[in-house]
Amino acid sequence: MGKQSYAVIGLGRFGTSIAAKLYEAGQEVLGIDINSERVEDGIVSITHAVALDSTEEDSLKSVGIRNFDYVIVAIGNDMQASILTVLLLKEMGVNKVIAKAINKRHGQVLTKVGADWVIHPERDMGERVAHQLLSPNVLNYIELSNEYNIEEIMIPPSMASKSLRELDLRANYNVNAIAILSHDNLIISPSPDQIMKNGDKLVVIGHRRDLNDFVNIK
Ligand code: ATP
33: which of 1, 162, 199, 209 is 20 to 30 A away, CA to CA? Predict the structure, then answer.
């Protein structure tokens, strides 16, 4: 991915971890916080950081907020500030605004005022933890719709030393293998002759019900 520019408004734990990760990946990151101590702390891990109140249009203009590819609003507790900031950013023509919501209602309002992507960190992380507890073999997953998932699964010992042809996942389990992760090697669209090894991870796509049966094979 090429270099993109990001502004992160609100340098609490959530905003700081987004900003630091983007910066580590070589992206241009501007951190913004009303609290100058947070700005001082943030400056070590991001490209630039400034102290301003994001509910003031002129302050946002002064840092050229419109020119950023993405603006992330990571203000949580002060719901009014979070909503007003998103509204201003969209009115000013910022292309992509991502905002953190602390509850469902907050999320709904953020969508109404134009947020392009609303994140519910506590709710989503709670769901992921429950999922992990219920299906310890599922290392990672993406929900494609209400019914379909892509899941990264640790293969059960019974599948080691077998080829994908022998396993015939489609006929036997109604799921499709889209990749194999063998150590650090990613094999996309693996051939039917590919032999699975102990410790390999399989990336499969399918109906959640079928995936659930599949991951519970011993
Ligand atoms: P986290 O849960 O991410 O750790 P937090 O609990 O420290 O966050 P939040 O209320 O979610 O606090 O606010 C995140 C940051 O947003 C704080 O550092 C706060 O100073 C900043 N912030 C709040 N209002 C504004 C504003 N109007 N303009 C800029 N920054 C703001």
Answer: 1
Strands 28-33 and 5-9: parallel
CA separation for the pair 164, 166 (Å, rounded): 5
Binding site membership of 54 for ligand 1 (Cβ less than 6 Å): yes
Each residue's pLDDT tens digit, 192-209: 999 999 999 999 999 999
- Report which of 121, 126, 124, 54 is spatially closest to residue 90, judged by C-alpha positions: 54
HEC string of 82-145?
Answer: HHHHHHHHHHCCCCEEEEECCCHHHHHHHHHCCCCEEECHHHHHHHHHHHHHHCCCEEEEEECC
- Locate tokens 């993405």: which residue? 70
Å from CA of 95 to ligand 1 middle: 22
Considering only CA atoms, which residue is closest to atom 15 of ligand 1? 10
116 lines ligand 1 (CB under 6 A): no
Residue 21 CB partners (closer than 8 Å, separation 6+): none
Beta bridge partners of 207: 148
